[in-house]
Amino acid sequence: MTKIITYNVNGIRSAMSKGWLDWIKTTNPDVICLQEIKALKEQLNLDDFTNAGYHHYWFSAEKKGYSGVAILTKKKPDHIEYGCGFSDNEGRVLRADYGDVSVISVYMPSGTSGDERQAFKMKWVANFQDYIGKLKQKRPNLIICGDYNICHKPIDIHDPIRNATSSGFLPEEREWLDGFMKTGFIDSFRHFNKEPHQYSWWSFRANARANNKGWRIDYNLVSEPLEKAMKRAAILPEAKHSDHCPVLVEVNF
Fold first, then answer.
1. How many beta carbons lie within 10 A of that of residue 216, not counting itself?
2. Cα–Cα distance between 5 and 82 in angstroms, integer?
3. By CB neighbour count within 10 A (0-12 exposed, 13-18 middle, 19+ buried), where does 140 fall?
4. 118 in helix, strand or coil?
């Protein structure tokens, strides 16, 4: 069984200062997909990750303290692919291939800073769908883990009515995510869990996390050929190293 966790750490150094590495050693995932690492690997003590038992691969943004993804993995991948051919200066996509299965760590753009970034986000997700469509022809067994910065359905957000005009829950974003899933991906969390009030991100404002006023924007999407290999999925809100929490999927591959 392969235990895969996606986690937007909102700064790897910040998360590590809050005991993240001890949590990893206790939780013991096989693969960890990180987003928003906000660091260059030169700014990290890489021995920390090696000593925890992981091969580690980093794809940082060119802009310091911004974005960036990483994959930590117990088993050495056959191949690592850095980037996806567009906006790679922002460090948003990293892929690890294991036999005929690929695990991708993705950090999709946020549109919360204004119209220009919202337009960039919509263009980015369209490009990403094209990239995945082509990749799937060669590598149909994909697990796409990460922060999508989009809630799929009203059940995935604490206040769908008041957030209907908020970036992350706009009709066009939700329509894109729905369409993307319909190209052959399973929302692994919802496959196993149908209950409301299950979130992966909370604002730092207004005591949102304590009141569970959250958004579910972090996903492990599993391509349909792997459906029967999925065994379990869970959100892990007790881990508090970030404004996001980890999301787990267990797949037999």
1. 25
2. 19
3. middle
4. helix
Q: Determine whether 218 is an active site residue.
A: no
pLDDT tens-digit map of 64-76:
999 999 999 999 9
pTM comes to 0.98
Query: Could you read off the pLDDT of 11-33 as tens digits, one per residue?
Result: 999 999 999 999 999 999 999 99
Q: Buried (b) or exposed (e) across 18-33, using 16+ Cβ within 10 A? A: eebbebbeeeebbbbb
Separation of alpha carbons 10 and 201, rounded Å: 11
199 contacts 212 by C-beta, under 8 angstroms: yes
Cβ burial of 208 (10 Å; 0-12, 13-18, 19+) is middle
- The letter for the amino acid at 248 is L
> What amino acid occupies position 46?
L
Q: Extract the tokens encoding 63.
A: 């802009």
**Active-site entry in 147, 156, 187, 218:** 147
At 72, give phi and psi (nearest 5°): -110, 135
* Rounded-to-integer distance, Cα 73 and Cα 139, Å: 20
**Counting every residue, how long is the chain?**
253
Q: Can you tell me which residue has the tokens 């995935």?
A: 156
Cα angle value 81/83/85 (rounded, 5°): 115
Does pLDDT of 253 surpass 90? no
Nearby residues of 229 by Cβ (< 8 Å), 6 or more positions away: 251, 252, 253
DSSP strand pairing (93-98 vs 101-107): antiparallel
